[in-house]
Amino acid sequence: MVFAEVQWGSLYVSYDGGFSFSGFVEGIDQDDRINWDMPYIISEFPPHDMYCGSQRVYRANAATLPWQPISEDLTKGPIFGPRYHDITNIAESKFHKGEIFVGTTDGRVQYQPADSTNWVDITTGLPDRYVTSIQTSPADANILYVSHSGYKDNDFIPHLHQSFDKGATWVDISGNLPQIAINDIAVNSIDPDLIFAATDGGVYYTIDGGLEWLYLGTGMPVVPVFDVEINEADSTLAAGSFARSMFTMNIKDLLEEEEVVIIDSGIENFDGAIQIKIYPNPVVDYLQIEMIERLNLEAEYSLQIFDQSGKLIHQQDIESNSSQVDLASLASGFYVLKIEGEGRTYQQKILKKG
Predict the structure, then answer these.
(1) Global confidence as pTM
(2) What architecture does CATH give domain 2-261?
(3) 265-352: CATH topology
(4) Residue 65: exposed, middle, or buried by beta-carbon count in 10 A (0-12, 13-18, 19+)?
(5) Tens of pLDDT along 18-55?
(6) N or C: which end of the chain has fewer CB within 10 A?
């Protein structure tokens, strides 16, 4: 079976490998508000139901019709005409069959739990912008990723957020991404800190969960990339551009680099002078800081912790080679830890949980 779509939600299916196609829209109300690129997905769980979205979500069996609506209007309503307020993205949990997440052109993000027919609004804490991508974590049922574009509002900020509690709270992980829209994201299944972002200026990646982003690869011109997908079987990344067709890249080296980070996590060089061991990370209550082979025991070192907005929320002096930091009162999410001393600076991202 092969599925294909052209603009305004015109879906087609082939039962002979693509030699012939027939329409696959029976049951979808043609008066619905449908995006130019109507989202549709095939469930990874048998019997492999399909989901698509207009202003509401439809479900169908992958081999039969008709489509059946499983939601009411999930947008803010047809305020600016028939085409604006519609669903742009659909994602399914990697852990729970039928747990569906959707994003809309008018900034709403909602999900339907697997054991419920009700929809939960998890928009609070996210920008009121066009949702370009929703991804569910392959590692944790409670982790989500959402990207937005602000072009409709003359906003060029790269909006990328992560939630560790299924949308109850959100953390900005856009880091140092350039001031252009993010169109899609892909998350590695081995370690969720390895994330790829398709932007209007190519593909960027991070190996530390969003603290630092780097431009990926060579050979691709600086063009808008609207889709990225990871082929786990052969460690390649596929990128679909809006100008120069498709590109693939072997990311085995990045995966190996990520494995090294996992093996050696907690011990980092401090500008070649000492080593610092920080553990546990993720942390629940207390973070332990150990300085190894510290050359000058009389030197003054300071520790600071910043939230994702850059606000200083904790600071203390490090008076010995072994120090403890009380983080029990902090909310769950990513923070940046900075240690300074003897003209040197060390920085690391930490994850507070629970």
Answers:
(1) 0.72
(2) 7 Propeller (2.130)
(3) Immunoglobulin-like (2.60.40)
(4) middle
(5) 999 999 999 999 889 999 999 999 998 888 899 999 99
(6) C
